[in-house]
Structure formats: C-alpha cells, structure tokens
Amino acid sequence: MTEAVIIGVGLHPFGRFPGKPAMDMGADAVRLALADAGVTWPRIQGGYVGSFEVANPDAIVGKLGLTGVPLRGVFNGCATAGTAVALAARAIETGEHDLTIAIGLDKHPRGAFAADPSVAGIPSWYGQTGLFLTTHFFGMKINRYMHDHGISHETLARVASKNFRNAAGNEKAWRRTPLTPEEILASPVLNYPLRQYMYCGPDEGAAALVLCRADQAHKYTSTPVRVRSTSLRSRRLGAFEVQSPSFPVGEPVESPTVDAAREAYERAGIGPEDVDVAQLQDTDAGSEIIHMAENGLCKDGEQERLIAEGATEIGGRLPVNTDGGLLGNGEPIGASGLRQIHEIVLQLRGTAGPRQIPGTPRVGYTHLYGAPGVSAVTILST
Amino acid sequence: MTTTQQPVAEGLFTWPPSVSEPLRLIGSECTACGLVSFPAASDCVRCASDESKPRLLADRGTLWTYTTQNFRPPSPPYDGPETFEPYSVGYVELPGELLVEARLTEPDPEKLRIGQDMRLTLVPYAVRDDGTEVMTFAFAPVEASAEAEEPAGAEDFAQAEPVEEEAS
Ligand SMILES: [Zn+2]
C-alpha cells in the first residue's frame, strides 16, 4: 500500500476575528498550506473538510477555485480533524488520489457550548436540570482520577501554566499571557477541582494540510512528514464518557483513547517509548494528565512526578502541547486536530522557532477526545 | 397558599412518592441479557434486544465521583431560576445496577467524599411563573448520625401535593 506524507501545512491564527467568516479563515489556511507544499489548488485531487458550525464547509471551493474536486465534509465531534486527515491519507494509501487536502475551520460564539440534548439522543430533562454540560464530565473524571492516582491540585495548575507559557511563544495562539501556577490556583472554581484557567474555551480558527504519495514527495519537499497511522474509536459499553446519564457497573472499561492509541501504535509499528513530542487533547488541565496515561506515554499516577520534574516541558524528555495546546489556542472544533498536526510537522522539520524542542525529534503523536466518547490518534514521523 | 409540585419528566421516578410507592428512579432491564438502563430504554446497548421491562432502581448508593456547577448553565436547555445557586453533580453507584448521574444536595465540595453513602431524594430545581415547583431527582449524603433512621420514604415528601392536573 502506498504511504501518505504531509508536504504542506497552513494555520490561520486561533482566537477571535470579528467580521471574518470561518470560510475566509479556512481559505487563508489552505493558501498557506498550498504555498508551503509548492502546489496550486487545481492540482488537489480530493480532500476532506471538517467543521461544527459551518453547515457545508465543502463550499470553500467557492473561494479556492471551482475545479470540480471531490471535497467531502466530515464531523466527529472534537475528533473531527482527526477524521479529516485520516480520510485524506487513506485516499492516498488506497491509490484513489496522489495529492489530497485536509481542512478544518470553525467559528464558535463566546461562552460554553449550548445545545439541545435531543440532538445527542439525550432526554430534555437532562439539559433542563443542569446536567448537560461537558465541563461536568471533565471535572468528575479528573476528580476521580486524582482520588485513585494521587494527583494534586498543584499538578493541575502546573499543566495549565506550561501550556500558557508555550502559547506565549506561539504567535498564532489565542491566550499568550503566561500565568503562574499560583495565579491559576487563585482563579475561581468552575467545576471542582477545575478552575477558570484550567479550561480551554471555544474560539475561531482554521488549519489545512496537503498530503501526497510518499514516492512523489521529493518533487515538493526535502522534509516530508510520514503519516504512520491514524485511528478513530468510539466508546465501549461500561466506559465513563461525556454526556452519559448513566453507565453500567462492573469491571472498568477503557476509554476510546486507550483503544485508539493501541491500534495506532500497532499500525505504525511504533511504541509509546519512541514518541519524541506529543499533542494531547487538553480540554482542561486534568484531561492532559489523564491522556498522558491513556495514550500509553506513562503509567497512571506517574504524572505527578513527571510534571514536577518538567518532563512535559519543551526541554523535557516528553514535551506535551508545545504550541500551547487547547488551553493556549482554544478549540475551533473542526480545526483543532489539524492545528496539533501543524505543530508536530514544524517540530519534526525543526522549524518551530522559540518553542522548538531540542535534539532531532523523529516521532510525533497527536490525540483528540470529544463527545459522545470518541478519540482520534495520528502518529507521524520523519 | 399551597405550593404545587410537578416532576420534570414523566416516567423518570415514581410520582408522587407515597408510602406504598416510595421514591425510586424508574430504569429498565433488558429481558434478553439483563442489562440495567437509566433512564428506561427500550433498546439494549449491550445485546441490541428491543425488549425490556421497567425496573425500580435502588434508592441508596455510594458516591463514585462529583464536581460542582458554579456558573449558571446556558439557557436553553437549562431552565432553572435566573438567580443562580451553585449546585453539585455526581455519579452514584447503585450496587449491581448502574452508576447514575444526578444533582447532589450538597453544593460544597469539601463536604463531599468519594465513597460516601448517598440516598435518593427530590429537589425543586425550578419554580414556574404560577408558583409550581419543578422537581428532579438528586442524591443526598447520608449523615453518619442519620444512619439509624428510617430509609427515605414518603414522609420526606409530605409537602409534595400530588398534581392531578395542570396547576392554574
Ligand atoms: Zn440486552
């Protein structure tokens, strides 16, 4: 089977851009990715575009050129971008196309996501009585995890502080003001034990990747980044997942992240010990901590020591969320996972500027988690 | 003036609770594989059977995890009062049945503890323009001193006037 490689990346800044439609941000990201790859839009043979707010993001062809290209819209909650890149890569792997694109764009209104529970197949009383908040799940999951594995409130604050500090070195990040762990611990509790500065916020942004057949990459770049594997898994019965009015008792069932990570490592022939830099879904500081273990990058409970030692800092032995993650960048759902891959590509190329990790990183890892219990993992390498 | 009460949804819990039918959550049990569900579900997410029977769930359990809600949730879907009072939510493990998500009566996280005993109760989470209290289920910590008391029964809801028809 042919291998897919990434030859171009483009990122529209994440944040708030009054008056600028999501489609325009997406078109900007595509143009950056095309320029980075050294290809023009008419040469793109197919692609996938993800968005939550934009009903038919494939309409972006109206801004890029009406070439007749098959561009399919995708949506998988917060794993949307993982789906877009997986399908764009698969179109190359199966020989359908030689040159594809993955695009993500979104423009969320301010504040927490508000939705009608019925669209998620959940009865309306769940929303009426104040249970339909995804932030509850993250508070409850890390509260239980802290109880079981000895994670402290200070460690939550250190994670958030690291991500804001990394974002300060990223001109395209939204929240670039560094905050100390003390300042973070002094912010109001929103959903115990999580505080205001431990949560990411919905915002706006776009990202795009150009992919091609590995055997043609030399025509475009000397630094292709290989898509070693992609995996997307949904929740299994018994796992503790977001938006669940109840779940069965019994033996604990692993989250879809564990399933997706295991599958992605197997397909890539790469183990967690080989990962040089990781981008993990940090909807909140607790999620980053839990996801370190769920993605196999450490054992449950080791995070307390690893984070205190600075292991996940840019200069540490396993840098996590070097561009500021979701905490620093916010979450335009459709674009978020492509932003993660954009960062990994820069790190593997050695062009991440002030946030470049030392040495010669060879393997990068990205992970998404979202409602209603879906995870996507992408493993990349030089 | 008598305060009238109504449940937030039909078929969620026994209503009105009485001595003969005390407060319980109404779940379901798959007739093929026995999986217990809440709220009651006709389709089984384990074996895909579409046959189930109603099952009243245990009114006692232990707190599996919890969090607080310190800001007013977006409306819609939330339809609680404009003047917001923080509340807590958690998952309570009903042994051998399931873990159920619910509001907790204790809003202070310092007074909640994973593993503590909880019992089912009702809370008026909203008041309609005509004064009707809208009731939903919640779990309350079982105080050590209250352990010897009678289990929660109809007497806890003696103030609950059965609503036979729409209050007007
Ligand atoms: Zn069944």
From TrEMBL, chain A:
**Gene3D superfamilies on file:** 3.40.47.10
Using the record's annotation, list all stretches that form the Thiolase N-terminal domain.
5-173
GO terms for MF: acyltransferase activity, transferring groups other than amino-acyl groups
Q: Can you give the residue ranges of the Thiolase C-terminal domain?
A: 254-379
Report the InterPro entries cross-referenced here: Thiolase, Thiolase-like, Thiolase_C_2, Thiolase_N
The UniProt entry, under CDD domains, shows: SCP-x_thiolase
Name of protein = Thiolase family protein
UniProtKB/TrEMBL annotation, chain B:
Annotated ChsH2 C-terminal OB-fold domain ranges read: 57-121
Q: Which residues form a coiled coil?
A: none
Q: Where is this region: Disordered?
A: 144-168
Record's superkingdom? Bacteria
Q: Which Pfam families does the UniProt record give?
A: OB_ChsH2_C, zf-ChsH2
Taking every annotated instance into account, which residue ranges of this chain make up the domain ChsH2 rubredoxin-like zinc ribbon?
Answer: 24-51
Annotated transmembrane regions: none
What protein name does the entry list?
OB-fold domain-containing protein
Organism of derivation: Streptomyces liliifuscus
